[in-house]
Amino acid sequence: MARTIQEVLDLIIAAVPGAPQAGSVDVLKSGDPAWEVTGIVTTFTASMDVLRQAVELGANLVITHEPTYYDHYDSDWLAGDPVVQAKRAFIEEHKLAIFRFHDYWHMHEPDGIITGMVRVLGWEAYKQEDEWMVVVIPGMTVGKLAASLKEKLALPIARVMGEPEQPCERIGLIVGAMPGDFQIKAFERWHLDAIICGETAEWQTCEYVRDANALGFNKALLIAGHAKSEEEGMHYLVEWLQPKVPELSITYIAVGDPVSLL
Amino acid sequence: MARTIQEVLDLIIAAVPGAPQAGSVDVLKSGDPAWEVTGIVTTFTASMDVLRQAVELGANLVITHEPTYYDHYDSDWLAGDPVVQAKRAFIEEHKLAIFRFHDYWHMHEPDGIITGMVRVLGWEAYKQEDEWMVVVIPGMTVGKLAASLKEKLALPIARVMGEPEQPCERIGLIVGAMPGDFQIKAFERWHLDAIICGETAEWQTCEYVRDANALGFNKALLIAGHAKSEEEGMHYLVEWLQPKVPELSITYIAVGDPVSLL
């Protein structure tokens, strides 16, 4: 059964309560909705490496969580940039359709990104019914939490605030790159001992946590990196989407943390 | 010769072309301008630890680059937060005057923060006359640059994008936490091979650099951390300020990177 790009996107959007929304960034970034889908790739970000692998796989629909051209709306702010021009030419030459699945995947019930992260961390039993960004893990400490993240997310090192023996049973999963003020307020809002974030705002969140601990409050921060904090949600998308399009091949491509340690 | 807080601030502001500016964050955050100065502390951020050291030193004027209450304007967005309340109580109890020296220190000619960083890195000879955020270092590579940052800024590890042998002679010093779009455009604007930043926006700058390198462009990013990228500028402030107030004791207090590695 042949399906068009639009038909696949319609199936996805129909499964998200409240979608579609006007002004959402979750639109087709390239390609023609009338094309027949030859295969699907899911990924955290449609990097050049991911696009090349999609071409090798013969997949013409790339479903990405993050933008293609480095800003939230993929506007033409960098239109004259040689990197953007070369990437756009590759996408056009290889007739790749790119769909951003960001807002709607977070709006899904439960949040698809958080679900993927909780699954890879093996924390389903610790989820809270009314607080979907919170897990409560009895006996957890900063050191054990850091070890867990390193093992399950394959981090070479854990970037941490808080002493290794510091208890942190109530943990907020503030994935992605939420603003510093949101991260700071999350501590009080959800009575958190620790936040696992993707990116942070060092001059805001980190300084708040530094002062909090200096004043005897029990606060910790674990910085997983943006890609590592969210990409398992795009991995989980394969399992979620496959039953809706059983005849199509869906491949998850990991991108990993872009930053190396020297 | 006794001096008031206001007299010291007037001396500082008078030495900055264009200062004072309406709407600047560089104002007195606590204390009374009429107090007599008992000693001065300079620092990247007026953390609890810095404030306690200031009290021990008997210094009642803290000159900080970053905010005291975790947002740019130190507004009352966190007024009910127990960390903020405890910090404010300490500041009031110990009669500490806190002056933020951010905009004006960057407006100083040359930029006081960049000057401090260039000095600690030993790069005075590589400065560019018309491009004050750029240094050009013949024969430099990403690996050598990372080693230099680790040594001179005492970083336990260098967070890097780019291969160690990748050449990077034209280097932008984009300290602090500049927005991702500014960092990305800086590559083209100044024809940079590499950017040394404080904080970055991984989903923007890092993905741009990842794609740029995948497409054969020569771009590198070295992430020093916000505090490490700017605090030597507050160290240099001691030398700059001392001749203006020769009778006062001025002490620089390093805060270091708030994040530990596990």
Automatic annotation (TrEMBL), chains A, B:
The keyword Metal-binding applies. Keywords: Metal-binding. InterPro entries: DUF34/NIF3, DUF34/NIF3_sf. The keyword Metal-binding applies. GO terms for cellular component: cytoplasm. It comes from the Bacteria. GO terms for molecular function: metal ion binding. A divalent metal cation binds at residues 65, 226, 230. Belongs to the GTP cyclohydrolase I type 2/NIF3 family. This is GTP cyclohydrolase 1 type 2 homolog. It comes from Ktedonobacter racemifer DSM 44963.
